Amino acid sequence: MSTLAASAAQRTIRRGLVITGLGLAAMAGVYVLALCFTPIERFQGLPQKIFYVHVPAAWSALLAFSLVGIASALYLWLRDPRLDWFAESCAEAGLVFSLVMLTTGPLWGKPIWGTYWTWDARLTFTLLLFFLFLGYRALRGAMHDPGDRARYSAVVGIMGLVLVPFVHLTVYLFNTLHPKPIVLKPDSPSLPWEMLRTLLVSLAGFTVLLFGYVTTHYGLARRAQEQGEEGGHGD
Amino acid sequence: MGKTLRIALAVAGKDLRVELRSRTAFVSAVTLAALILLIFNFARDTAVVSREALVPSVLWVTLAFVGVTVLNRSFTMERENGALDGLLLAPVSRSAVFLGKYLANLAFVVVVELVTVLLVVLFFGADLRGTLGALLATVFLASAGFVAVGTVFAAMTARTRFAELMLPLLLLPFLVPPVIAGVQVTTRLLAGRPVSEIAGWLQILGLYDVVFFTLCLLVFPSLMDE
Amino acid sequence: MAIDPNANAGFMIAAYVVTAVILLGYGASLWFRSRKPPSRG
Hints:
The complex is a heterotrimer. By secondary structure, chain A is mostly helical. Chain A is about 80% helix and about 0% strand. Chain A has one domain (about 1-230). In chain A, α2 packs antiparallel against α3, α3 (about 80-115) packs antiparallel against α4 (about 120-140) and α4 packs antiparallel against α5 (about 145-175). The longest helix of chain A has about 40 residues, at about 195-230. By secondary structure, chain B is an all-alpha fold. Chain B has one domain (about 1-225). Chain B has helices at about 1-20, 25-40, 50-70, 75-80, 85-90, 95-125, 130-155, 165-190, 195-225. In chain B, α2 (about 25-40) runs antiparallel to α3 and α3 (about 50-70) runs parallel beside α7 (about 130-155). Chain B is globular, with a radius of gyration of 18 Å. The two termini of chain B are about 25 Å apart. By secondary structure, chain C is mainly α. Chain C contains 1 helix and no strands. Chains in contact: A-B, A-C.
């Protein structure tokens, strides 16, 4: 009886790992595509290729964050612990992708803008998202009762999601008031087909990876909860 | 509705009366503000940076940190005395408790902010020239929303370890929009710019307040479930 | 003014390497966690 339940979690974990593996394989393909089969941009040279990992990572981080917010809202309404596991999983994945953004961003910025960090809208926004993810995680770490933890982090999740448009707006306005001496503009207005294709493939790869990460972590959370019940000792 | 308000005012009144009796928290908060300003003064190269130029930045950074520190105490009383459970066992609506806590926090924060603004004027030679009223109004407008968020977070973190660290960690990101808007408005007020230039920022502050106050009012009850 | 296309290759390589490390690293940590016998607490 409990073995059946345990194996449901195990199956989710295994499925998640398979999807993650597929995602990573897709990323390897994207690397080859971006590095060998995509033309070099004329004005930025090789560093422009960072675009193919930086932008999809941003998209995935933002998607993950929105999912945390939505799952949090649903949890407060429905109180289904599975929504809490899902939110926690998305938060962790989001943290990973924002870390990618925050490392590739400066590495792209240095050759193009001459400086590792600028307080431009996108980087600032990502940094804030990163801190919100960290705060969410820190709060969860500090709480031991699963019910309290789920409810409290759900509140942070919703508040964070509502905060996002305000930060986006105010940071954008802040930046337009103080134009930076940008020598080159990293996003070209219209992408040639090969570049667009690579970007889209990378986007797909990142999305698969997000799905894989979230599924695996969800399975792990489910398994931990089931084993907690089985063992008879509370958290 | 009337009952909720009455309960809220009772909760707020109790909090504020406790504060008035000891006044320690208030004095400490104001001293903290003064000390931060002191450090800011020394944290500049006097030959290069005039103190007037720093006024908007110094004001809002100080307000942010003092505000967070002040909010930290809003539930410590209950935490230390185990009174939070008593408050929740009482047959009153959770929203009323939130409203009461919020009003008490807002009152406290606003008074501390008033003193902080005056201290900044004093220490940094800000020439307010008739804009003091507008500046204070902006500061209060910026506080209304963030105090709501702070009240919710303070209630949450009061039950965790490392509450003093957890609250700033969670709350400071929420200060970004009010601080950005606040500094923009302050800079323009000090430069004597027309109101039309700051109207947009004030609208953002107002929207932030309405949105977050409503959201906090809605989510606070779920924090207090058992 | 076209830049020498191979200039600054180091930044690109660094970015791609760091990304791979992060993504693989997290995947690996998930895998290890799935293997470990449960010991939550």
